[in-house]
Design brief:
By secondary structure, this protein is of the alpha/beta class. The protein folds into 2 domains: about 240 residues, Isochorismatase-like (Rossmann fold, 3-Layer(aba) Sandwich); about 70 residues, no CATH class. It is built from 10 helices and 12 strands. It has a 6-stranded parallel sheet, sandwiched between helices. β10 and β11 form a beta hairpin. It is globular and about 65 Å long. The protein starts with about 25 loop residues before the first helix and ends in a 15-residue tail after the last strand. The relative contact order is 0.17.
Length: about 350
């Protein structure tokens, strides 16, 4: 078969369940995936001459499922539906899937418990903690968390916050945002959206291509929007606290085509693409045309009454277009995507 021709959706897939959470029936699904591949002439990924990586950024319940902590909104359910269907329809085209998982604990630099004001109150989710706020004492470190995060050294933790907000300010990154507790390790919110997990598992079995899972965001003293690099990588003394994920970066850039989708368009997707482009421009700027963004499988962060990053997300995608990145739709035939198929 033509591996880039879309195939039908498998009978187990139910688009009406995308907004729900359920247990994927791996042992029933595995033989179905093998039979489906045989029926549709889908070969093992090892046979691919044009190697295609699909990068799924933080497609977790915490962002994508109604009722969870940082639910992007109703567009997120449709994003997940379109993405699940894209994987099934293009089993033969997708060589490899890399999945990133935003991973947090309660005490981290962007959660409410980390900060207090003069009355000991924590900031509301969606609040920005700027360099000026820290310098003027509007927000300060909650000293009681030093027991868990700095071996009890309160002064060290205060120095780290001063250094951290200064780094964000000097490098023109987003101001430190206080997020609701989300993507909590061990919780249901941390898990992949069930329909997406099911599609990834189906692809894994059908194509004999192990799904790659990448943990990000688990260091308590830095943010990690990008799948490839923390926002701040050093402490006040200059010592490294976290580092760029060079192994993942090298692996992704070994593929002939890279497709990116996920949540959120304004943060983790945008920052991941920024880091990919930075490395592409260092190696060979012409490679940017091999990077494809599924614009109908991603949405910006919006916290009603607090923050709306729609404009920032759209500006980022326009910047990517200008750099040569292809912005496409999952519902369009891959054969119609500019430059995707070899001549």
């Amino acid at each position: 078969m033509d591996r880039f021709r879309a195939i039908e959706l498998p009978p187990h897939y139910d688009s009406s369940k995308v907004a729900e959470v359920w247990r994927v029936a791996y042992n029933q699904l595995a033989p179905q995936a093998e039979e489906w591949a045989k029926r549709h002439g889908v070969l093992p990924a090892s046979s691919d001459r044009l190697r295609v990586a699909l990068v799924l950024v933080d497609l977790q319940n915490t962002f994508c499922t109604p009722g969870f902590e940082l639910y992007v909104g109703d567009t997120a359910v449709e994003d997940s539906r379109r993405l699940s269907e894209f994987i099934y329809r293009h089993l033969g085209a997708i060589t490899h899937i890399s999945v990133t998982l935003d991973t947090h604990r309660a005490m981290q630099i962007f959660h409410p418990i980390f900060f207090v004001d003069a009355e000991g109150r924590h900031p509301a989710p969606g609040s920005a903690v700027t360099r000026q706020d820290v310098e003027s004492g509007v927000w300060k470190v909650n000293e009681t968390v030093a027991y868990s995060l700095a071996s009890g050294d309160r002064d060290a933790l205060k120095a780290h916050l001063d250094h951290y907000v200064a780094c964000l300010d000097e490098h023109s990154r987003y101001a430190l945002t206080v997020w609701p507790y989300h993507a909590m390790l061990g919780g249901i919110g941390h898990a992949l959206v069930s329909s997406v997990e099911e599609a990834c598992f189906f692809h894994n079995i059908a194509r004999k291509s192990q799904t790659d899972f990448q943990i990000k965001g688990d260091h308590p003293l830095t943010e990690n929007y990008s799948a490839l690099r923390p926002e701040v990588t050093t402490g006040p003394s200059g010592a490294a606290i976290a580092k760029r994920n060079d192994a993942l970066l090298d692996r992704l850039l070994s593929f002939d085509r890279i497709i990116v989708a996920g949540q959120a368009k304004s943060h983790c997707v945008a920052w991941t693409v920024d880091d990919l482009l930075e490395e592409i421009n260092r190696r060979d700027p012409s490679l940017a045309q091999n990077l494809y963004l599924l614009e109908d499988c991603t949405s910006p962060v919006i916290i009603p009454g607090a923050v709306d990053f729609t404009e920032a997300a759209n500006e980022a995608f326009e910047r990517f277009r200008g750099a040569g990145v292809r912005v496409v739709r999952s519902t369009d035939p891959i054969s119609d995507w500019p430059g995707f198929l070899p001549r």
